[in-house]
């Protein structure tokens, strides 16, 4: 899958979430308070706004990302292993939080829990599938069955927990930190031309933090965050903090190409020495905070914390990587 898939999905999710943010209505309900029973005004206002934003975003994505590339008949593309599968973990995370946000939005309209759940599952799957279909009709890329599989996994993680526990004991989260790319010149296979590695990284991932957060697989960590109290059997009256989680993360390093660290610039080909810059995987263990379990009374603050709960809280972390190294980070982003 192409590099911008995760950013496309993130943009769709953020704008669709905006359609779920409640505006003041004519009811006696507070604007951020969930309706105790189905409220048609809220439901159709949310559905209409969401549909309009979704249509606008899809048209915009088509113009921004696809219009400059030739169309093709619907085709498939096997991208398993690309970007050390960080793209795949990102797909599961994105599908998970899209489903979570849609679930919360549906409950705000007063739909019962089960209807909200299946509506959210369908919407989360649809949002992700939209980008895959657009890829499928692009000559540059193609429809990825692997992406659909990881999208389904993310939706399933949310749905499965709601059916099993009626709560989210396991959260999927993301974090992203700054990467200091080396000022290193890569020699062309033929000729005397060189390609600076930091320039390559900027062209791939962007120069700003916002672009890096959406695109940079060297900076991204995908986390699976487990709530300790809910799995420990602690009673409701226990003083153990209900918001404390333990998180396991996966990241990658030295990625300067999808499948390999090699690229072309015109008629020149550049190959990065794998001995100097080996591609590798990182695994992390770190404490985390489930923001949705922090006791707050104001509905607006609860909604805000649920929104921010897709991000892993910066904290100390232990790293083990496939280079055989163990590292301690006093603060990992």
Radius of gyration: 22 Å
Mean of pLDDT: 88
Structural class: alpha+beta
Q: Rough shape?
A: globular
Helix percent reads 40-55%
List low-pLDDT spans.
22-28
The count of DSSP E runs of length 2 or more, i.e. the number of strands, is 10
Counting DSSP H or I runs of 4 or more residues, the number of helices is 9
The arrangement of helices and strands along the chain is HHHHHEEEHHEHEEEEHEE
The main β sheet shows up as: 6 strands, antiparallel
In order across it, which strands form the biggest sheet? 1-4-5-8-9-10
Strand content: 15-25%
Distance between the termini: 25 Å
Structural descriptors:
333 residues, 6-stranded antiparallel sheet, two-stranded antiparallel sheet
Produce a short descriptive summary.
This protein is an alpha+beta fold. It contains nine helices and ten strands. Strand 6 (262-265) and strand 7 form a beta hairpin.
Descriptive account of the structure:
The chain has 333 residues and is of the alpha+beta class. Helix content is 43%, strand content 19%. The protein contains nine helices and ten strands. It has helices spanning 5-20, 40-66, 86-108, 113-136, 145-165, 197-205, 209-215, 228-232, 299-308, and strands spanning 170-176, 185-187, 194-196, 220-227, 244-253, 262-265, 268-271, 280-289, 315-321, 326-332. The strands form three sheets. The protein has a six-stranded antiparallel beta sheet. It has a two-stranded antiparallel sheet with strand order 2-3. The protein has a two-stranded antiparallel sheet with strand order 6-7. Strand 2 (185-187) and strand 3 form a beta hairpin. Helix 3 (86-108) crosses helix 4 (113-136) and helix 4 (113-136) runs antiparallel to helix 5. The protein is globular. Mean pLDDT is 88; it is low at 22-28.
């Amino acid at each position: 899958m192409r590099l911008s898939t995760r950013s496309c999905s993130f943009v769709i999710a953020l704008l669709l979430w905006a359609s779920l943010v409640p505006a003041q209505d004519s009811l006696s309900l507070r604007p951020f308070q969930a309706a105790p029973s189905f409220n048609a005004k809220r439901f159709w206002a949310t559905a209409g706004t969401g549909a309009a934003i979704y249509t606008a975003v899809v048209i915009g994505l088509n113009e921004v990302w696809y219009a400059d590339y030739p169309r093709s008949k619907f085709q498939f593309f096997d991208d398993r292993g690309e970007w050390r599968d960080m793209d795949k973990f990102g797909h599961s995370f994105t599908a998970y939080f899209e489903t979570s946000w849609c679930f919360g939005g549906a409950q705000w309209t007063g739909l019962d829990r089960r209807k909200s759940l299946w509506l959210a599952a369908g919407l989360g799957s649809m949002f992700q599938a939209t980008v895959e279909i657009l890829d499928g009709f692009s000559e540059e890329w193609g429809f990825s069955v692997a992406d659909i599989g990881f999208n389904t996994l993310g939706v399933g993680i949310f749905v499965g927990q709601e059916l099993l526990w009626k709560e989210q004991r396991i959260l999927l989260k993301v974090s992203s930190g700054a990467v200091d790319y080396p000022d290193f010149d890569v020699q062309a296979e033929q000729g005397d031309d060189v390609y600076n590695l930091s320039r390559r990284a900027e062209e791939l991932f962007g120069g700003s933090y916002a672009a890096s957060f959406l695109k940079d697989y060297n900076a991204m960590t995908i986390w699976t965050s487990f709530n300790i109290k809910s799995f420990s059997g602690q009673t409701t009256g226990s003083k153990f903090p209900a918001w404390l989680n333990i998180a396991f993360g996966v990241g990658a390093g030295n990625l300067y190409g999808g499948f390999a660290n090699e690229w072309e610039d015109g008629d020149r080909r550049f190959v990065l020495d794998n001995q100097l810059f080996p591609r590798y995987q990182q695994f992390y263990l770190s404490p985390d905070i489930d923001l949705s379990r922090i006791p707050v009374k104001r509905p607006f603050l609860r909604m805000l914390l649920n929104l921010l709960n897709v991000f892993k809280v910066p904290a100390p972390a232990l790293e083990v990587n496939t280079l055989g190294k163990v590292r301690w980070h006093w603060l990992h982003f």
